[in-house]
């Protein structure tokens, strides 16, 4: 088809549209030029409207109405403010979810998150994806997960640097040792830790569905 120039008759979209509708999409002949398909532009996501200062105040006041803290894509939050948020969540009894996706969080924030996990007893979901946490900071977070028995979901994928083989092994070990973790977001590069993590998550979910099997 490429040698004969058949690809100039119609695009793949026109071909599949013709199959679905039963109508001929290109009636201009063999010498016609395939026109590019027009797609509707997808608008950018609106900026995160969360007021960081107000959120920090409510966390420090242990506001029972504040259960989900979403700071995603707010890139200008100073590191001391992120550390203060983690410090406030240490003793907060109402927050269930903390999401710090694409907040430029680094190892200093990771250390604050680890200290938070060691004391908090209400957090269920933690998302640290798309940040600048290195292997050292990630190991610190993984070591603290077992100290937070309420945490069921952890997402740490897409860090700026590759975390390395030792971190992936630590992730698999953490999932094996923490039956409370039911969902884990990370793209493994090694087959061994990937298989161990999948088996551990399957076991954890089965134990949650059947507590008497534990």
Automatic annotation (TrEMBL):
<dbReference type="GO" id="GO:0006936">
    <property type="term" value="P:muscle contraction"/>
</dbReference>
<keyword id="KW-0009">Actin-binding</keyword>
<dbReference type="GO" id="GO:0051694">
    <property type="term" value="P:pointed-end actin filament capping"/>
</dbReference>
<protein>
    <submittedName>
        <fullName>TMOD4 protein</fullName>
    </submittedName>
</protein>
<dbReference type="GO" id="GO:0005523">
    <property type="term" value="F:tropomyosin binding"/>
</dbReference>
<dbReference type="GO" id="GO:0005865">
    <property type="term" value="C:striated muscle thin filament"/>
</dbReference>
<dbReference type="GO" id="GO:0007015">
    <property type="term" value="P:actin filament organization"/>
</dbReference>
<keyword id="KW-0206">Cytoskeleton</keyword>
<keyword id="KW-0963">Cytoplasm</keyword>
<dbReference type="InterPro" id="IPR004934">
    <property type="entry name" value="TMOD"/>
</dbReference>
<dbReference type="GO" id="GO:0030239">
    <property type="term" value="P:myofibril assembly"/>
</dbReference>
<comment type="similarity">
    <text>Belongs to the tropomodulin family.</text>
</comment>
<dbReference type="GO" id="GO:0003779">
    <property type="term" value="F:actin binding"/>
</dbReference>
<dbReference type="InterPro" id="IPR032675">
    <property type="entry name" value="LRR_dom_sf"/>
</dbReference>
């Amino acid at each position: 088809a490429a040698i004969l120039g058949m690809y100039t008759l119609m695009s793949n979209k026109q071909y599949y549209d013709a199959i679905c509708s039963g109508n001929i999409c290109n009636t201009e002949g063999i010498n016609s030029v395939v026109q590019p398909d027009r797609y509707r532009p997808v608008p950018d996501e609106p900026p995160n409207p969360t007021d960081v200062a107000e959120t920090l105040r409510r966390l420090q006041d242990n506001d029972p109405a504040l259960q989900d803290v979403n700071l995603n894509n707010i890139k200008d939050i100073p590191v001391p403010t992120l550390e203060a948020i983690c410090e406030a969540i240490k003793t907060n009894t109402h927050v269930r979810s903390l999401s710090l996706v694409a907040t430029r969080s680094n190892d200093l924030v990771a250390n604050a998150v680890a200290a938070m996990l060691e004391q908090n007893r209400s957090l269920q979901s933690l998302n640290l994806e798309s940040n600048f946490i290195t292997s050292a900071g990630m190991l610190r977070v993984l070591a603290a997960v077992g100290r937070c028995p309420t945490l069921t979901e952890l997402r740490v994928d897409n860090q700026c640097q590759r975390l390395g083989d030792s971190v992936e092994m630590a992730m698999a070990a953490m999932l094996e040792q923490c039956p409370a973790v039911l969902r884990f977001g990370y793209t493994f590069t090694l087959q061994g830790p990937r298989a161990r993590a999948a088996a551990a998550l399957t076991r954890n979910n089965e134990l949650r569905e059947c507590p008497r099997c534990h």
